[in-house]
């Protein structure tokens, strides 16, 4: 059963569209005093309490925010299932520009809304929210992860997110070229912010040639200054995906990077990145396969962060988390093998495996 709390009429059709169905609960939150407008979407609790981050973003409309929360929360169900976690999928979005709207009062109000769900949803960081923000939210909500070590948390989850993506790249290289190394491969990283700049470190250590781009000039400059002469940059993503000799394309910013405009001009043979919801619409995964491009499903390879925040709920141990994130390599290879045996794209194979785990969990409840 889907429960919708506080929904204005103009977003109801988004909530009940056939391609968005299956969510257990969607809550629209508003606190006039602080200016908070937020959406909390719980897709599934079949495997356990829903777990997923809080995105703070200036959406053009409430309907757009709801749609993003629905997509992201569904993706978290699949991500948590494939990561072997005892958590379902949830996500929250806060509507507004975090640079101007974010305040202690707003974060505390948001924490009260999450707390009101009684543990059905566990929150964490995402685009526009940081460890310091989760420390504030946690003052009102015990179901908060991604906190600072000083406040009993694990700190920045982007470190293990990048590590997991790197493991996915290694598996992709092994599957396609028969060697689990990026040495001598040219890798293009689109977005070198929270996760991307850590990914660059792994790639350079492994001997890859790295090309980067980012909408924020300061992010590009930080990487170039840290690795003088070892990393090159291009003007934008459009230039990056057309880079001659590119072996791997790593989308590490917002979703929708793989679409009807980008897929036909991709020069890379592999797509493996940290961004969520990289496939803009159903069918893109087939377009990639038809072009002979190997796609490592985003929610599989970028699960290092959620592995970390889930571990925080049980007393964080970095080595334990890193060992679990290392298994992303094996999981990615298993997906490629399932895709080959079933004659389907890797994205469809990953969905089948995740859906099977969730279905088995429902039958035992």
UniProtKB/TrEMBL annotation:
Active site, UniProt feature: 91 (proton donor/acceptor)
Main location: cytoplasm
Alphabetized UniProt keyword annotations: Branched-chain amino acid catabolism, Cytoplasm, NAD, Nucleotide-binding, Oxidoreductase
Pathway the protein acts in: Amino-acid degradation; L-valine degradation
SMART domains membership: ELFV_dehydrog
EC assignment: 1.4.1.23
One of the Pfam families matching this protein, by short name: ELFV_dehydrog
Catalyses which reaction(s): L-valine + NAD(+) + H2O = 3-methyl-2-oxobutanoate + NH4(+) + NADH + H(+)
GO biological process: branched-chain amino acid catabolic process
Assembly description: Homodimer.
Protein name: Valine dehydrogenase
Organism: Streptomyces boluensis
């Amino acid at each position: 059963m889907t429960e919708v709390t506080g929904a204005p009429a103009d977003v109801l059709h988004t909530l009940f569209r056939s391609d968005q169905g299956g969510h257990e609960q969607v809550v629209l939150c508003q606190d006039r005093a602080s200016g908070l407008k937020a959406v909390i979407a719980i897709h599934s609790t079949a495997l356990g309490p829903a777990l997923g981050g809080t995105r703070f973003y200036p959406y053009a409309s409430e309907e757009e925010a709801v749609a993003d929360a629905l997509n992201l929360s569904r993706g978290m169900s699949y991500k948590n299932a494939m990561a072997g976690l005892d958590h379902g999928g949830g996500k929250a979005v806060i509507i507004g520009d975090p640079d101007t709207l974010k305040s202690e009062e707003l974060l505390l109000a948001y924490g009260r809304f999450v707390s009101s769900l009684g543990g059905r949803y566990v929150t964490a960081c995402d685009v526009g929210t940081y460890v310091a923000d989760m420390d504030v939210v946690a003052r009102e909500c015990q179901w908060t992860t991604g906190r600072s070590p000083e406040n009993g948390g694990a700190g920045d989850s982007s470190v293990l997110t990048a590590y997991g993506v790197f493991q996915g790249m290694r598996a992709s290289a092994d599957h396609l070229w028969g060697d689990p190394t990026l040495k001598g491969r040219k890798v293009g990283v689109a977005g070198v912010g929270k996760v991307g700049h850590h990914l660059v470190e792994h790639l350079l250590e492994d001997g890859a040639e790295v090309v980067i781009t980012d909408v924020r000039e300061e992010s590009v400059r930080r990487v170039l200054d840290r690795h003088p002469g070892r990393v090159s940059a291009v003007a934008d993503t459009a230039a990056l995906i057309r880079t001659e000799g590119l072996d791997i394309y790593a989308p590490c910013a917002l979703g929708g990077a793989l679409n009807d405009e980008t897929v036909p001009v991709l020069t890379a043979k592999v797509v493996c990145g940290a961004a969520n919801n990289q496939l803009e619409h159903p069918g893109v995964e087939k377009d990639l396969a038809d072009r002979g491009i190997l796609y490592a499903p985003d929610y599989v390879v970028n699960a290092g962060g959620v592995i970390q925040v889930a571990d925080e709920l049980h007393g964080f141990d970095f080595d334990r988390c890193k060992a679990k994130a290392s298994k992303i390599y094996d999981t990615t290879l298993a997906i490629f093998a399932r895709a080959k045996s079933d004659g389907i794209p890797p994205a469809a194979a990953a969905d089948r495996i995740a859906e099977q785990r969730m279905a088995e969990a429902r039958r035992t409840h």
